[in-house]
Amino acid sequence: MEWQESGSETNLETKYSLNSCNILNELRKSGQLTDAVVVAEHHSFPIHRAILSACSPYFRALFTNDLFSTDRKRVVIPGVTAEAMKAIIDFAYTRKVDVRPDNVEVLLPAADQFHVNGMVKGEIEI
């Protein structure tokens, strides 16, 4: 039996969580087990509705609303650039975003518009 110091459970949980996120991101990138497609500026992004719902109350409301048909696979999001939507989706899966001087004025308003947890409140890993 191995002795575990205090805090090692948290470390294990973090590793498990990161591993799960990496697997879900790989599945998304390969289009496996995705259950919807988000469209912005004619660019399609396969996603898992549960992942976007977990990072954004906007998407949670969108995907859990009684008016949203669970048979509906394609969701067009107006008023956001494809670059910003890709960054938001990537952030939902990885908790990382590439903020640069040339994209900050597009990313932060989009993150704010969709209430992306952690992306607006300074929890971003750049």
How would you summarize the topology of this molecule?
Blueprint: H1 8-29, E1 36-40, E2 43-47, H2 49-55, H3 57-64, E3 74-76, H4 82-94, H5 104-113
Parallel strand pairs: 1-3
Antiparallel strand pairs: 1-2
Helix pairs in contact: 2-3, 4-5
Description:
The chain is mainly α and 126 residues long. It has a single domain, classed as Potassium Channel Kv1.1, Chain A, CATH 3.30.710.10. 48% of the residues lie in helices and 10% in strands. Helix 2 crosses helix 3 and helix 4 crosses helix 5. The longest helix is centred in the N-terminal third of the chain and has 22 residues. The termini are far apart. The N terminus is likely disordered.
The CATH homologous superfamily is named Potassium Channel Kv1.1, Chain A
CATH topology: Potassium Channel Kv1.1, Chain A
Structural class: mainly alpha
Number of domains: 1
Approximate shape: globular
Q: Order the strands across the largest sheet as they lie in space.
A: 2-1-3
Give the CATH class.
Answer: Alpha Beta
Order of helices and strands: HEEHHEHH
In short:
With 126 residues, this protein is mainly alpha-helical.
Please name the defining characteristics of this protein.
mainly alpha, 5 helices, 126 residues, three-stranded mixed sheet, globular, Potassium Channel Kv1.1, Chain A, disordered N terminus
